[in-house]
Amino acid sequence: MNLEKVIFGFFIVLAATLNFGFFIGDIDNPVHHHIYELFAAVVVNLIATILKLGDRTQIGAVHLATSLVADLQLIAAAMVWGYAEHVSQTGMTPEVTTSIVSLSGGALFANVVSVVILIAETIMQRR
Q1: Where in the chain are the domains?
Q2: Is the full-model pTM beyond 0.85?
Q3: Would you say the C-alpha torsion 13, 27, 66, 74 has a positive or negative sign?
Q4: Is-contact 73 104, C-beta < 8 A?
Q5: Predicted confidence band at 127 (pLDDT cuts at 50, 70, 90)?
């Protein structure tokens, strides 16, 4: 067993599951989407991106691209949340929550693509 591949797979799957945990719930209800879960999703996605930097294969490039998309979407969601809470006078409205969760949904799709690529890559490897 290759420890590096275990850690790589762990962070890819953890990024997807944390993002899914934040995404699930009523899209416009801020009570169903916790800020610390979004923070954890951002951090784990950034770690997964760093782990993907060393792979110089075509599949590695697609892995990196999906990770960068997820990072961009999650960071944008965090920025919208921060703006709504600390700059805007309106706070967390259903419209703002919908925007944040929608951005998280885009990141979730990118994470699912990354997991599918990981599974396909694993199946294609010869023993």
Answers
A1: 3-124
A2: yes
A3: negative
A4: yes
A5: low
